[in-house]
């Protein structure tokens, strides 16, 4: 398999899944411009490095990994630049617009949040998620279970905080 084949295949995957990559990037960045930057940088990295992928069957999950890592890198850089961050306005079309859910998702560590987003928002198989995050399947399953339990507890806590006291 040559470089040219991987390049064409990579470009096709990027084109076919652009909106999915954007949604994933937006779920991390919570800002349209930053999400677009993540997708653009990810596409550049994917096309630049696609010849390193030996099996074309892994290109799709490899690109997801690039998007996740690029978003996390950008978040780390932004965190160093500013210590306080205001919650940005959320566009109406945002698929992850539920503020309560977003709040509890952001309480998870990066890897756990990535697993939840890829499984339930991007509908990826656990095997593909394991490839993307670089863990074995059992580790991903365990992390998913723990993360869902933590999310449920955090959502319940948020819900009870919002119920007015009727005494």
TrEMBL record:
Family statement drawn from the similarity comment of this UniProt entry: Belongs to the sigma-70 factor family. ECF subfamily.
Origin: domain of life: Bacteria
RNA polymerase sigma-70 region domain segment(s): 16-80
A matching Pfam family: Sigma70_r4_2
Keyword set, alphabetical order: Sigma factor, Transcription, Transcription regulation
Segments forming domain RNA polymerase sigma factor 70 region 4 type: 99-151
Native organism: Enterocloster hominis (ex Hitch et al. 2024)
Protein's name in the database: Sigma-70 family RNA polymerase sigma factor
């Amino acid at each position: 398999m040559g470089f040219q084949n991987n390049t064409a295949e990579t470009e096709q995957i990027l084109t076919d899944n652009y909106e999915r990559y954007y949604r994933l990037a937006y779920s991390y960045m919570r800002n349209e411009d930053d999400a677009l930057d993540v997708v653009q940088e990810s596409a550049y990295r994917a096309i630049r490095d696609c010849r390193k992928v030996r099996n074309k069957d892994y290109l799709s999950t490899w690109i997801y990994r690039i998007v996740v890592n690029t978003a996390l890198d950008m978040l780390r850089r932004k965190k160093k630049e500013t210590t306080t961050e205001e919650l940005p306005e959320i566009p109406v079309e945002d698929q992850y617009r539920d503020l309560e859910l977003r709040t509890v998702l952001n309480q998870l560590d990066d890897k756990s949040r990535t697993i939840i987003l890829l499984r339930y928002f991007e509908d990826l198989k656990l095997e593909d998620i394991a490839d993307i995050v670089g863990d074995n399947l059992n580790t991903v399953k365990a992390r998913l279970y723990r993360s869902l339990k933590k999310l449920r507890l955090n959502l319940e806590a948020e819900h009870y905080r919002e119920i007015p006291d009727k005494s």
